Amino acid sequence: MPLHVRAPVQDAADAAWAALGQAGAWWTGTERVAIAEAARAAGPRPLWDRAPDIASASRHADGDDLSPFLALLVERVAVGPATLTRDDVQAIAQEIGDAAYAELASIVCQVVTIDQLAAALGHDFRPLPSPQAGEPTQVRPDGMADVGGHIEMTAENFGPNVGRSLSLAGDDHVRWRELVFTMYSGAEFFEMVWDSRALSRPQVELLAARTSALNECFY
Fold it and tell me: Are residues 67 and 139 in the same domain?
């Protein structure tokens, strides 16, 4: 039998999925679904198969498909984020805009998070939503500043820096944070002792640290 998903996690995943097909701040619903499809299709390349250089990729898109430039960018964010340097991100931001990059990265993070949870629990991947009509709002969140990351983020420090790393993505950042919050700690984040779970807090932190090390996490 498929393993049960707790209600808060299911609710966060449902909210993220419902918004995938809707126009965001910088991408249309069609583009957002295409980003999600590319993220789902991405897989680690063999060591001898290096990904093509993003900068030299074509910007021309065929139909509703992503351009090779954007498809490669999605792949790098999904399975090789450690290969994206600050200089890379700044060049990409000049190409598509820093907020558009943040929204794309947030979409990828949401899809990868939900899909990996489904895979771990033996569930099928849920079908991607149909794109909905509408134009991007082009609304940039207030209070953004350069605080030392690859892109601007909220100047207000409200916890770990990783928690505000994609705040330039606005609503998509909020949905991604809710996924992380419900899957990781819930309301017990600031409690150092967890006695109501199968794993203790130190065990969870050890798994998190080891996973971050294997992924060469910038944070």
Answer: yes
Domain assignment of residue 55, yes or no: yes
**How many CB atoms sit inside 10 A of residue 106's CB?**
27
Distance CA(142)–CA(145), nearest Å, equals 9
The boundaries of the domain holding residue 197 are 191-219
How many separate domains does the chain show?
Answer: 2
pTM value surpassing 0.85? yes
For residue 1, being part of any structural domain is answered with no
Confidence (pLDDT) at 189: 80
Q: Which residues of the chain have pLDDT under 50?
A: none
Q: What sections of the chain are H helices per DSSP? A: 7-20, 29-41, 68-79, 86-96, 98-121, 171-184, 201-214
pLDDT at 128: 95
Token pair, residue 119, equals 């895979």
Return the pLDDT at 115.
Answer: 95
Residue 2: per-residue pLDDT: 61
Could you tell me which of 148, 122, 135, 145 has the C-alpha nearest to residue 3?
A: 122
106 and 89 belong to one structural domain: yes
Q: What residues contact 159, with CB distance under 8 A and at least 6 apart? A: none
Packing angle, helices 68-79 and 98-121, rounded to 10: 50
Among 110, 94, 7, 108, CA closest to 54: 94
